[in-house]
Amino acid sequence: MKACKGCGVVKPAAEFHRRRANKDGRQRLCKLCHHAANIKWLQDNHDELRLKLKAYHAKHYSKNKAHWKSYSRKYYKENYLKFYEKMVRRKMIKRKAMPVWADKTALRKIYEKAIKRRMAGEDVQIDHVVPLQHKLVCGLHVHYNLRVIHRLKNAEKSNYFKVN
Ligand SMILES: [Zn+2]
What we know:
- By secondary structure, this protein is α+β, with helices and mostly antiparallel strands.
- It has four helices and six strands; from the N terminus they run ββββαααββα.
- Strand 1 and strand 2 (10-11) form a beta hairpin.
- The longest helix is centred in the middle third of the chain and has 50 residues, at 46-95.
């Protein structure tokens, strides 16, 4: 049992938080007084704390922002091909232009070629020699129907295709 230095009430040791630095291993204030003192301190320092917290968030958020930005950029760069292939495959399946026997490795090589050229600054895209959607012919999404060409050329070609 000991008397609280705050409220003066004599209370059992369990009513005081532990504090190894003190002789009896307990706080000078009882748990209730300690809690009240904590709240008072928070109220007294409210403005200062708020500013500190704000500064902390600003610092760490901006740090994290930069981190996440570079992380997502790196991830995209490393997985660009995967994203692209997935997108194309989905589109082709929808159009029923990609047969099950399509050589996926050969297709991938064409994408890789296009991406390499694009990274080198060339404005290229992948073109279907025989268009996928045409009144008379229907091309397939297979490697021998694909080529890497400049974007402008592809736009000019549009879906104009000579049927011999
Ligand atoms: Zn007390």
